[in-house]
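Person: I keep going back and forth on a fold encoding question. Show me how you would write down a chain together with its backbone fold. Please set it down just below, with no commentary around it:
Helper:
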Amino acid sequence: MGGTSSVTAGSSLRTSSRPALRTAIAGVGMIGQVHLDAVRRSGAPVVGVSASTPARAKEAAAALGVERAFDSSEALVTSDDVDVVHICTPNDAHAGLAELALRAGKHVVCEKPLTTSSATADALAALAADSGLVAAVPFVYRYHPMAAEARSRVLDGRAGEVRLVHGHYLQDWLSEPGDTNWRVDAAAGGPSRAFADIGSHWCDLVEWVTGHRIAELTAVSQTVDRTGPAGDGGARVRPDTEDVVQLLFRTDRGATGSVTVSQISPGRKNRLWFEVDGTRTSLAFDQENPESLFVGSRGENAAVLRDPATLSPAAARLSVVPGGHPMGYLDCFAAFVRDVHAAIRAAGAAGGSSADGTGGTFPTFDDAARMVRLTEAVLKSAADRTWKEVS
């Protein structure tokens, strides 16, 4: 449904209070399989999957050890046999499936971007809030223990007042002329690719770490030509979504910052890196080397290692193995799903409230809608080369 969803808030929706948390996953590509692993690690049953075709769903169910293959994602998200829906389809289907799921009384985990238009994203967030259901989006880099440690050091004042936030998120999977993917096509992926896909992760993470929100920005973007289909003689074509975004911004609390987002940086597989410079210390985190946090000062620099015995309570909560036993991306996903499931159980026990009483900080549809609004501001700024305010 993309940007044409007819979502309206205020509908009367039922909330599932069943304890089994039967989970189904729409979409069985790489990210769908990551969700499946995380759900299984949480102890919840995965009762079914859907895919682009019924035949593909049957193949995937057999390969993944899932009992049921749904003929369509629409059937999956409205099934009476499902309590929690994970939406891992191409971006253009997110809004329609999320709305169907909420109206059917399902708790929802939806991949980002939540939608490809801010109006639809805001309406979905309102619908989720009115429903009393848990509606989450996996901005899972919040679940790296050392990113949580950085947040704790900002919140408790050890970093001092935040002055500067900067970094990058670099990948190389579209750096060759012949590289392509459904995300390159705006019809399936939406009007933004690099920023909506990975820049949103960086911005969500640094806003969560610092407590600052990006209030205004200016952006430039770059798109490189690619080799067209063989039937077209291999002519060079220009995609309609961006490969690179560079952003300058100011926050609502007076800090300034910058970020470079790229999917065409050779050798950079998934390098999300940020630094927060405060008046007392600087804090730097590298997602590809997540077992330590750089803490810098005028007097002495340190690499704080992940060890639950020495970290802040918020970071120690996420450190599920002792120091020296590396944790990574899949562990973040598992922790995210654990928090979401705990909130669902708490909602059932409270008679419908979706407040998270677990001590977790999982991102909601409100957070996802904000990132859609931020993405739209980036695209508008890159188009007319002016500063834009972000709501």
Observations:
- The two ends are 24 Å apart (CA to CA).
- Confidence is low (pLDDT under 50) at residues 1-18, 350-359.
- Residues 329-349 form the longest helix (21 residues).
